[in-house]
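I'll show one example:
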Amino acid sequence: MPEAAKAPAGASSSANLIEAVLAFDFGLKRIGIASGDTLTATAAPRPAALVTRTGPAWRTIERAVAELKPRRLIVGAPYNVDGTPGALAPAARRFADELERRFKLPVSMVDERWSSLEAGTALKARRAGGGRRRIRREDVDSVAAAVILERWLGGESGEDLK
């Protein structure tokens, strides 16, 4: 793999390096996870992390970070249709802050409006095209994380935490 390639518009301006990236679709029951990179500018869903009364399943997230060694993390920012912060915005921001604290990686928040709807539509189309199993909520969450990551890779720079 070459060491340098032109990064997409959403990638940090500090480098033309290929970056592995992890994205998260924050929720109160599950956190969808997706991985991708700035070379291919594509994203793939990964197994979701459960959220319990004590918080996210950090071990699941830690495994994904250890395995992929991302250079950046992306978190979906929940906005309402009118552009105002959604009800989950403060919790998603706390989650993003905790990611940054735990992993010492840059974190960006990207508008997640309609990502779950887009994910559900894509999964239904895949099932209609021959997919055999039913669509699980955790599948929707992780495909939504892939949608969020593809938005960032496509140039939606979002808001950097620092």
